[in-house]
Amino acid sequence: MVQKAVIMDENQIKRAVARISYEIAERNRGTENLVLIGIMSRGVYIAERIAAKLKELEGYDERVGVLDITSFRDDDKNIPDSDKTDIPFDIKDKSVILVDDVMFTGRSCRAAIDAVMSRGRPKNIQLAVLVDRGHRELPLRPDYVGKNVPTSRDESVQVMVREIDDCDMAVILE
Description:
alpha/beta, Rossmann fold, 3-stranded antiparallel beta sheet
Protein backbone atom coordinates (compact mmCIF):
# COMPACT_ATOMS: atom_id res chain seq x y z
CA MET A 1 0.00 0.00 0.00
CA VAL A 2 1.09 3.53 -0.76
CA GLN A 3 0.75 6.46 1.63
CA LYS A 4 -1.87 8.84 0.28
CA ALA A 5 -2.01 11.50 3.01
CA VAL A 6 -0.91 12.33 6.52
CA ILE A 7 -4.09 12.97 8.50
CA MET A 8 -2.51 13.57 11.93
CA ASP A 9 1.01 14.59 12.82
CA GLU A 10 2.66 14.35 16.25
CA ASN A 11 1.20 17.64 17.51
CA GLN A 12 -2.30 16.80 16.28
CA ILE A 13 -2.12 13.45 18.08
CA LYS A 14 -1.01 15.19 21.31
CA ARG A 15 -3.91 17.63 21.05
CA ALA A 16 -6.38 14.82 20.31
CA VAL A 17 -5.18 12.82 23.33
CA ALA A 18 -5.50 15.92 25.54
CA ARG A 19 -9.02 16.66 24.21
CA ILE A 20 -10.14 13.05 24.72
CA SER A 21 -8.72 13.13 28.27
CA TYR A 22 -10.60 16.33 29.13
CA GLU A 23 -13.82 14.87 27.68
CA ILE A 24 -13.40 11.64 29.69
CA ALA A 25 -12.82 13.57 32.93
CA GLU A 26 -15.79 15.86 32.27
CA ARG A 27 -18.26 13.15 31.23
CA ASN A 28 -17.31 10.89 34.16
CA ARG A 29 -17.10 13.74 36.67
CA GLY A 30 -13.48 12.93 37.42
CA THR A 31 -11.68 9.62 37.44
CA GLU A 32 -13.10 7.85 40.47
CA ASN A 33 -14.12 4.26 39.58
CA LEU A 34 -12.66 4.74 36.10
CA VAL A 35 -10.30 2.27 34.40
CA LEU A 36 -8.58 2.46 31.02
CA ILE A 37 -8.03 -0.62 28.88
CA GLY A 38 -6.05 -0.37 25.65
CA ILE A 39 -6.80 -2.74 22.78
CA MET A 40 -3.56 -4.34 21.55
CA SER A 41 -1.40 -3.10 20.21
CA ARG A 42 -1.42 0.62 19.44
CA GLY A 43 -4.52 1.24 21.56
CA VAL A 44 -2.45 0.37 24.63
CA TYR A 45 0.01 3.22 23.97
CA ILE A 46 -2.77 5.70 23.30
CA ALA A 47 -4.47 4.57 26.55
CA GLU A 48 -1.20 5.11 28.45
CA ARG A 49 -1.00 8.66 27.08
CA ILE A 50 -4.60 9.34 28.10
CA ALA A 51 -3.86 7.94 31.57
CA ALA A 52 -0.83 10.24 31.91
CA LYS A 53 -2.96 13.25 30.95
CA LEU A 54 -5.72 12.18 33.37
CA LYS A 55 -3.09 11.87 36.11
CA GLU A 56 -2.00 15.43 35.37
CA LEU A 57 -5.60 16.71 35.33
CA GLU A 58 -7.34 14.62 37.98
CA GLY A 59 -4.71 12.57 39.82
CA TYR A 60 -5.71 9.36 38.02
CA ASP A 61 -3.68 6.56 39.59
CA GLU A 62 -4.77 3.28 37.96
CA ARG A 63 -2.53 1.36 35.62
CA VAL A 64 -3.67 0.83 32.05
CA GLY A 65 -5.04 -2.62 31.24
CA VAL A 66 -3.97 -4.45 28.08
CA LEU A 67 -6.64 -6.30 26.12
CA ASP A 68 -5.90 -9.00 23.54
CA ILE A 69 -9.07 -9.54 21.50
CA THR A 70 -7.65 -12.28 19.24
CA SER A 71 -9.75 -15.13 20.64
CA PHE A 72 -12.92 -12.99 20.54
CA ARG A 73 -12.68 -12.00 16.86
CA ASP A 74 -15.36 -13.23 14.47
CA ASP A 75 -13.20 -13.54 11.36
CA ASP A 76 -11.44 -16.68 10.18
CA LYS A 77 -7.95 -15.79 11.34
CA ASN A 78 -6.32 -19.01 12.43
CA ILE A 79 -4.18 -17.60 15.24
CA PRO A 80 -2.90 -19.71 18.14
CA ASP A 81 -4.70 -19.11 21.41
CA SER A 82 -2.16 -17.11 23.41
CA ASP A 83 -4.03 -14.46 25.35
CA LYS A 84 -1.74 -11.53 26.19
CA THR A 85 -4.42 -9.70 28.17
CA ASP A 86 -3.17 -8.02 31.35
CA ILE A 87 -5.87 -6.29 33.37
CA PRO A 88 -4.36 -5.82 36.86
CA PHE A 89 -7.52 -4.45 38.44
CA ASP A 90 -11.11 -5.47 39.08
CA ILE A 91 -13.57 -4.12 36.50
CA LYS A 92 -16.68 -4.89 38.55
CA ASP A 93 -18.83 -1.74 38.92
CA LYS A 94 -16.17 0.39 37.18
CA SER A 95 -16.54 2.67 34.20
CA VAL A 96 -14.32 0.99 31.61
CA ILE A 97 -12.84 3.14 28.86
CA LEU A 98 -11.75 0.93 25.95
CA VAL A 99 -9.10 2.67 23.85
CA ASP A 100 -8.24 1.82 20.24
CA ASP A 101 -6.29 3.52 17.49
CA VAL A 102 -8.78 3.27 14.58
CA MET A 103 -12.47 2.41 14.45
CA PHE A 104 -13.70 1.02 11.14
CA THR A 105 -16.44 -1.64 10.92
CA GLY A 106 -16.93 -1.98 14.69
CA ARG A 107 -15.95 -5.66 14.77
CA SER A 108 -12.84 -5.12 16.91
CA CYS A 109 -14.91 -3.06 19.31
CA ARG A 110 -17.50 -5.85 19.56
CA ALA A 111 -14.74 -8.36 20.26
CA ALA A 112 -13.29 -6.03 22.92
CA ILE A 113 -16.66 -5.68 24.63
CA ASP A 114 -17.05 -9.47 24.66
CA ALA A 115 -13.53 -9.84 26.10
CA VAL A 116 -14.22 -7.29 28.86
CA MET A 117 -17.58 -8.84 29.74
CA SER A 118 -15.94 -12.26 30.04
CA ARG A 119 -13.88 -10.82 32.91
CA GLY A 120 -16.69 -9.30 34.94
CA ARG A 121 -19.56 -6.85 34.82
CA PRO A 122 -18.50 -3.21 34.63
CA LYS A 123 -20.81 -0.31 35.50
CA ASN A 124 -20.51 0.79 31.86
CA ILE A 125 -18.18 0.59 28.89
CA GLN A 126 -17.16 3.63 26.87
CA LEU A 127 -15.00 3.73 23.74
CA ALA A 128 -12.24 6.18 22.86
CA VAL A 129 -10.56 6.09 19.44
CA LEU A 130 -7.88 8.25 17.92
CA VAL A 131 -9.35 7.97 14.39
CA ASP A 132 -12.92 7.12 13.36
CA ARG A 133 -13.03 6.29 9.66
CA GLY A 134 -16.68 5.22 9.38
CA HIS A 135 -18.07 2.26 7.41
CA ARG A 136 -19.74 0.54 10.38
CA GLU A 137 -21.08 -2.97 10.01
CA LEU A 138 -22.37 -3.04 13.59
CA PRO A 139 -24.48 -0.46 15.47
CA LEU A 140 -21.58 0.89 17.52
CA ARG A 141 -20.06 4.34 17.82
CA PRO A 142 -17.18 5.75 19.85
CA ASP A 143 -17.86 8.06 22.80
CA TYR A 144 -14.59 9.95 22.33
CA VAL A 145 -12.95 10.61 18.96
CA GLY A 146 -9.65 12.30 18.18
CA LYS A 147 -10.47 12.82 14.50
CA ASN A 148 -13.24 11.73 12.12
CA VAL A 149 -11.78 10.88 8.71
CA PRO A 150 -14.03 9.97 5.79
CA THR A 151 -12.39 7.23 3.76
CA SER A 152 -13.32 4.88 0.97
CA ARG A 153 -13.48 1.15 1.67
CA ASP A 154 -10.42 0.71 -0.58
CA GLU A 155 -8.30 2.91 1.65
CA SER A 156 -6.96 2.08 5.09
CA VAL A 157 -5.86 4.19 8.02
CA GLN A 158 -2.66 3.42 9.87
CA VAL A 159 -1.78 5.00 13.19
CA MET A 160 1.90 4.97 14.09
CA VAL A 161 3.14 5.47 17.64
CA ARG A 162 6.72 6.19 18.66
CA GLU A 163 6.79 3.19 21.02
CA ILE A 164 6.44 0.81 18.06
CA ASP A 165 7.08 2.84 14.90
CA ASP A 166 9.57 5.51 16.11
CA CYS A 167 7.15 8.30 15.13
CA ASP A 168 3.67 9.58 15.93
CA MET A 169 1.35 10.06 12.96
CA ALA A 170 -1.78 8.76 11.27
CA VAL A 171 -1.87 8.21 7.53
CA ILE A 172 -4.27 7.10 4.84
CA LEU A 173 -2.97 4.28 2.65
CA GLU A 174 -4.31 3.16 -0.70
